Amino acid sequence: MIICRSRILRRLFDEDISDIIRDVMILNGVKVLFEKSIELIGGDPPAEGIKAPCGVVYADLIVAALGVRPNMSFLDGRIKLGEHGGILTNERMETNVKDVYAAGGDCAETRDLITGNYGIFAIWPSRGNRAGLPATT
Q1: Which of 23, 60, 81, 98 is the most buried (most CB within 10 A)?
Q2: pTM value surpassing 0.85
């Protein structure tokens, strides 16, 4: 496994949990390389390996999890963005503009229900449900 960042699922888990996931993967025979970039995914379909600056890595399975980076250029500064580039919202998914809500985990920057930190949590389906609350209350 090639991870371009310093740890596994760093936006979802703290360092201790990321370390546990890494250790379990290594115990199960997965080679984990951190802070490496990928130059090419190659081979006749299906893909057989990855070319990286550290060399060629052959694999039985290749999964590309590239993350999320919202495109907010159309907002032209009218709606406040958070430090991660998402639309900054409160717990009711309200933006800084009256009666404007952000509905979508891949564009809204919200407070994590567990840690209290702000971020973009694209894989949390409950975020969209929270946006419906203001319309029904």
Answers
A1: 81
A2: no
